[in-house]
Design goal:
By secondary structure, the chain is of the alpha/beta class. It has 2 domains: 51-133 and 237-351, Periplasmic binding protein-like II (D-Maltodextrin-Binding Protein, domain 2), CATH 3.40.190.10; 136-235, 3-Layer(aba) Sandwich (D-Maltodextrin-Binding Protein, domain 2), CATH 3.40.190. Helices cover 43% and strands 16% of the residues. Strands 2-1-3-10-4-11 form a 6-stranded mixed sheet, with helices on both faces. Helix 6 (163-174) links the parallel strand 6 and strand 7. Helix 4 runs parallel beside helix 5 and helix 10 (254-273) packs across helix 14.
Length: 367
C-alpha cells in the first residue's frame, strides 16, 4: 500500500483544517439573527410596510394630499402597501395622533411640525418634504386700515399653537400690540374656520389670520387683506404645509417613504401643470369630506395665493422656531438639529431628473 510522503500529509491536513473553519464561519453567518426592527411584529428593516396611515386636512393648503388620494397616486405608488387616511382640522390634533402612534405620516403646518419634534425631544418625527407655500393672510373688516385699529377688537386664528396662530401673535409683538382683553389689547380667539366666517358676517369678530381658502372666503364676505404673510418672508416663500413622518417608520420602511414621496410629486406636478383640473379635483374632495364646496371665485383666488412644491424650505425653520417663542407658544427655541431628512426626497427627485433640495444643515443630528 502506497503511503503519502510527510509533506503531502501536512498539506492535506492544512487544507482540511481550512475547510472546517470556512464551514464553521458559514454556519455562524447563517445562524446570526437579523437586525431587530423598531416595532414589535414589524417587517424587517428596509421592507415595504403592510400599511401606511396618512393624515391631512380637507383644505386647499393640503391640495397635494387631496389630489394624491383622489387621483389614486398614493395607492399606485404604494403598491401592496395599504393606504389608510385620516383627516384633521388643525395641526395640534394631528401631532397628538403622530406622537400617539396612530399615524405614520402627515401633511401638517410648519408650527405643529416643529412642536411635534420638540415634544418628543427630537426623536419621534422627521420633516421629509414640503407641499405648499403661501396662502395665509390677516383679513379684516374694511374699515380697519392699520394695526393700531385692531385694539379692542377680536381676531380669530384656527387653533392655539397652529401655524397661523404663531404668525399672528408674532406680528402683534412686532407691531407693539398686546394679546389680551381691554381697549388697548387685541383679543386673539382660537375658533374653527367655518365658525370664524359666521362670526365675521355677524360682526362678532373683526377678522382672522387664516389659511386658504378661509381668507378668500372672508374676502368674499366683504373683508380686506391687511397683511399678506408672503410680504413678511424673503422672496415671499414660507412653508404653509409640509410632510412629516414618524422616525421609526422612516427607518423601518424607507421604500414605502420614497413611494409616498413619488406620489406626492405626481400630485404637485398635476397641480402645477393642470391647475384647472387640480381646482376641480381639490374642490370635489373637500365637498366629499366636509359636505361643502367652494364658490368658483373663492376657489380661483385661493389657488392664486398658493404655490406647490416638495422643497420644505428648510432654511426658514430656524426663524419659525424663534417665532414660536416670540408668540409665547414655546418657552424656549427648539433645537432643530436632526429635524430634516431629505435624503429620500432627493432620491426621488434625482430619479425624476429634478433638482435636489437643501436641508440647510438641519439634517445633522445633535452632537
Amino acid at each position: 500500500m502506497h503511503r503519502p510522503s510527510l509533506p503531502r500529509l501536512r498539506s492535506a491536513l492544512v487544507l482540511a483544517f481550512v475547510a472546517v473553519l470556512a464551514l464553521s464561519a458559514c454556519s455562524r453567518r447563517e445562524d446570526a439573527p437579523t437586525a431587530p426592527s423598531a416595532g414589535a411584529g414589524a417587517s424587517a428593516a428596509g421592507s415595504p410596510a403592510a400599511e401606511l396611515r396618512l393624515g391631512y386636512f380637507p383644505n386647499i393648503t393640503h391640495a397635494p394630499a387631496l389630489i394624491g388620494v383622489t387621483n389614486g397616486y398614493f395607492q399606485q405608488e404604494l403598491g401592496s402597501t395599504k393606504l389608510t387616511t385620516q383627516t384633521f382640522n388643525a395641526g395640534p390634533e394631528e401631532v397628538s395622533a403622530l406622537l400617539g402612534g396612530s399615524l405614520d405620516a402627515g401633511f401638517i403646518g410648519s408650527g405643529p411640525a416643529i412642536n411635534a419634534f420638540a415634544k418628543s425631544n427630537g426623536e419621534a418625527v422627521r420633516l421629509i418634504a414640503g407641499s405648499t407655500s403661501g396662502g395665509a393672510q390677516l383679513v379684516v373688516a374694511p374699515d380697519i386700515t392699520s394695526p393700531e385699529q385692531l385694539k379692542g377688537k377680536i381676531v380669530a386664528t384656527p387653533q392655539a399653537g397652529n401655524t397661523q396662530d404663531i404668525a399672528f401673535k408674532k406680528w402683534l409683538t412686532a407691531n407693539n400690540l398686546t394679546n389680551g382683553t381691554g381697549p388697548d389689547a387685541v383679543t386673539v380667539q382660537n375658533i374653527d374656520n367655518p365658525r370664524t366666517l359666521d362670526l365675521f358676517k355677524s360682526g362678532e369678530v373683526a377678522g382672522g389670520w387664516l389659511p386658504e381658502p378661509w381668507s378668500s372666503r372672508l374676502v368674499d364676505a366683504g373683508a380686506k387683506v391687511l397683511v399678506d404673510e408672503k410680504s413678511l418672508w424673503p422672496d415671499g416663500q414660507f412653508p404653509t404645509t409640509v410632510l412629516i413622518v414618524r422616525t421609526a417608520f422612516l427607518q423601518e420602511h424607507p421604500q414605502t417613504v420614497e413611494a409616498l414621496l413619488r406620489a406626492e410629486q405626481k400630485s404637485i406636478d398635476f397641480a402645477s401643470g393642470q391647475p384647472d383640473q387640480a381646482k376641480t379635483v381639490t374642490n370635489d374632495a373637500i365637498k366629499q369630506l366636509t359636505n361643502s364646496s367652494l364658490a368658483p371665485a373663492v376657489l380661483d383666488r385661493a389657488f392664486t395665493e398658493l404655490s406647490f412644491g416638495s422643497d420644505p424650505l428648510a432654511a426658514t425653520f430656524p426663524q419659525l422656531a424663534k417665532d414660536s417663542v416670540t408668540a409665547g407658544i414655546s418657552e424656549k427655541e427648539t433645537n432643530l438639529a436632526g429635524f430634516v431628512d431629505v435624503a429620500p426626497l432627493n432620491n426621488v427627485l434625482t430619479a425624476a431628473g429634478k433638482p435636489t433640495v437643501d436641508a440647510a444643515g438641519l439634517d445633522k443630528a445633535q452632537g
